[in-house]
Each structure stands twice: as C-alpha cells, then as structure tokens.
Design a protein that fits this description.
425 residues; 14-stranded antiparallel barrel; 2 helices
Length: 425
Amino acid sequence: MARVVCLVVLLSESETWAGGLSLYEIATADVGLASAGWAARAQDPATLLKNPAGMSRLTGNQFQAGAQLLQAGIGFSPSAGTTVDGNSGGNPVGVLPSMSLFYVHGLGEDVKVGLGVFSNFGLGMSYNSGWVGRYYAQENTLIGISIMPGLSYRINDKFSIGAAANVMIGYLNYSAAVNNRAFLNVPDGNMQMTDTTVGAGGNVGILFEPRTGTRFGVTYYSQIKLNFGATPTFTNLTGPLGTALQNNGLLNRTLDLGMTVPQSVMVSSYHEFTDRWAMMLDFGWQDWSQFGKVDVGVTGGNATPSLTTAINYQDTFHVALGNRYRLAEAWLLNSGFAWDSSMLKDQDRTVTLPIGQQFRFGLGAEWQANPKLNVAFSYELAYGGDLPVNQNRGPLAGAVVGQFPGTYINFFQVSFIWGKGAGAA
C-alpha cells in the first residue's frame, strides 16, 4: 500500500544554506563580510577551514572562539490544491545557537599546524503537529560536526600551501505522520528513523601574495560520504495500512539513506587599495548534483510499495564582494554581499527542504582591544524570498501546494582571537 517518501532535513547547530546545506557562517568575522575573501583573507585561525595555506602567514600561536545566534523565518503558507486538512506548521526553525573553535600553532617560521571544531553542514526543522505536510515530514534533523586538523607551509615570500583533514560526525533524525485515516477515521500513526555515522574528506589550498596587501587564494574541498542507514520505527498503525506495510516487507526494511557532502572550489582575492581600505571578491562552485539525499515517508497508493524517492539536485554557484575599512587604529568596519544559486528548481522543491537562491548582506566591526586580543561583532541577513512548493505523492501523503513566503535568516555573531598578532593584518 504505501510508498515511502519524505525525509531528511536538517538542522545544524550552526546556520543556514549557502547554495545548499554547506554553510559559510561559522561564528567568525566572515559573517560581517558575507564570506567575501574566504580563501584569500587569511587573517584569523579559521583560515584552517577557509584556506589552510593561510595559516602560515599568521603571527605566533593564535586561538579563536566564536558564538552565534540564528533567528529564522521559514513558515509555510498552504494554498488551493492542498488536499490534506491541517495548519501551516508554524516556523520550523526559530532560534538556534552555535559556536566554533580554531587553534593555530607554529612549528617554525614557515610551518603551522591547526585544529578546528565546528559545524557547517546541515539544517533542522520541526513543524507543529497537525500541519498539512505532516505525511511528508514532521521533524527533520541533519547535523554534521567537523573535527579538522591541518598543516600549512610557506614556500617563500609569495607562495604558501596547506591541507586539512575533515572528520565529520553525522547525525540524522527524521519523523513523519502516517495516514491511518486513508482507511479508517482514526488518529495518525508515526514513522521515525535515527542514525549516526562518520565520514572523512579534506581540503587543500594555495595562497599567492605577489606583494604586501594583495593575495589570491584557491581552496578545494573533497566530497564526504555519510553512509546513513536506518530501519523505520512505526507506531500507532491501525487496520489495513499496517497490514499492507507488513505484507510488502516495509515494517522491517533497512533504508539506505547515504548522502554526499559535495566537493567544491572557492577562488578569492584580497587587495588593500590604501592603508585604510581593502576589497575582497569570491567565486565558488559546489557539486550538489551528487548530494544523493532521498525523501522518506509513507506515501503512494494501493499499488507499488517503495521506500525512497530521489530528488533532482543541481550544482550551485557563488559570488561575493566585501569591503574592509579602518575607522581608527583599533577599529575595522566590515561589509559584504553574496549571492548563491539554488540547489533545487522550483518544481523539485519539497516541504522537507525549503531552499532556493540566497542573497546575503553582512555588516560587522572588529576591535583590537590590545596586541593580543581581537574582538569581532557581526550581523548577516540571508534572504531567500518566496519559495513555491507543489508536491503530490499519492493519496496517503496527499497534495501539498503553497509557498514559504519571504524566507530569511538573521545571524548575530561575536568572536575572539587571542595570541601574538591577533586580528586582521
């Protein structure tokens, strides 16, 4: 009877989408720059992630800690064509805290090692009970937490190289309602899956500094396989539906929910026009067509049972422009704009993954409190606009038609850098 389709998505203890689910906002001053200069700025320990080659140009040993608060507005508005009774689901994201930690240690004048702990992959959603899309998703959490060691070597005054490993701990939790009422006038059942896995990848980078104050950086990120697999747990199944699921072997079937954190490339530049003003540019690509996420849930009709449905994803592209202006000896003002294309076309968007193109606007300030302490305060608005949805996967899940209107996420960030030479140079 049932075909299963509707799952994964997603929370990170951190943040929001870039072009997909990989995030630029890692609780550092880059939030105020909308990520501009990502692979070329090389001015804080978080360069371990952004371009590990940049660690070699940091002075001494430096530790960076950042905290961030995310506030999102991603509510759904159903419209004519929706066949399921229910409410709009509320705001499934709300407010989330996050943090990041980075440390860079010198092994000599030209060799640096680093270690980072952060989360920059995922998203999480939890809808109100009784919402119109409950047969597609009720709660969806995907978290990727990375532990990243890295090494950087400065070849000469102009060239540096670096590499880092990314050990990602992945956590997946999903639940959806089951439509008992398709057969009997009884309350909904429930389907839930949980799994934890570990994947590994890495990033390599090159930093070219033809002269003081001008840098070009390139970073390549490998893909990371997260081999999730889980057997759904069903509760409150009633009557013919439970029998049909049992007869088709769907109650005890392990689902292969493997997905790929995509490979990507970032190319960046940083140039100081004067001793007060610098400008940064980014161009990026992410291979989301290889993501592999499936949707899971009890859908379909009386005929061919199935457990998963693939979704068509497309590669995304990124551009960013940022400015840094020195207001006074101890104060820097950051600003930035970025655009990311969408990993989903409108016709492929699902209520479990309300993602589209992103426009990001950042503003921040850095305060050099003393030679060993730098403090950054940043704000970013990530605006996704209206995201239409039109899903129909059979009578058990019903048709869900509408849009996520005026989607946005606000980021509020503060970070600290301790160590000799801490802060932008």
